[in-house]
Amino acid sequence: MNLTGAFICSREAFNRMKTRGSGRLIHIGSVSDHLTLPMNGSYAASKHGVRALTGVLNEEGKPYSIRATLISLGAVYTSFWKTRPEFSPADMLSVEDVAQSIFEIARKPLNVRVDELRLLPPKGVL
Predict the structure, then answer these.
(1) 12 DSSP 8-state letter
(2) Is 21 left (phi over 0), alpha (psi -120 to 50) or beta?
(3) Coil, helix or strand for 60?
(4) Name one GO molecular function term (predicted).
(5) Overall average pLDDT of the 42-67 stretch
(6) Which residues contact 7 (CB under 8 A, 6 or more apart)?
(7) Residue 79, in any domain of the structure
(8) What pLDDT was estimated at residue 123?
(9) Predicted local confidence at residue 37, as pLDDT
C-alpha cells in the first residue's frame, strides 16, 4: 500500500499541479528505502519504489515547476510503539519533528528543489 497510495495520490496531484503551473509533492519514505534490514522485504521494496517515484516526478516535473521531495524517516514514536516497552520515545523522532520538517520543505519557494531529507533519531537506526 505504501507505493500504491503514493502513486495514485501523486498522479492526481501532479496533473492538477501541471494545469496550475507549479507545485510540490512530499513523500514519506523510510530508512528502509536505502538500508538493507532483515525481515523487511515487502516494506523495503515498497519504500524503494517511493524513492524511484519521487525521482521520476522530479524529472517529469521540471518543465512545470513541480518539485518532489522524499523524506526518509528513522523510527518515529507513534501509537505503534506504545505496545513495545523496550523502545523509548526519547530514542525516536517525535511526530512534531517530522511535521516541522515537512512544513519547512513545503514553504520553500519552487526555485528550490529539495530532493531528499533523511531524519534519524538520536541513536540512528534502532
Answers:
(1) H
(2) left
(3) helix
(4) oxidoreductase activity
(5) 97
(6) 53
(7) yes
(8) 87
(9) 87
Q: Confirm whether 110 is domain-assigned.
A: yes
Looking at the structure of the chain, the number of domains it has is 1
Of the residues 18, 26, 28, 43, which is catalytic? 43
Max Cα distance, the chain (Å): 49
DSSP 80-98: GGGG-TTS-GGGSB-HHHH
Mean pLDDT of 54-64: 98
In-domain check, residue 46: yes
Q: Kindly report, residue by residue over 60-116, the tens digit of the pLDDT.
A: 999 999 999 999 999 999 998 888 888 899 999 999 999 999 999 999 999 999 999
* Residue 82 domain boundaries: 2-119
For residue 21, what is its C-alpha cell? 503551473
**Residue 43 designated active-site:** yes
Q: Is the pTM of this model over 0.90?
A: yes
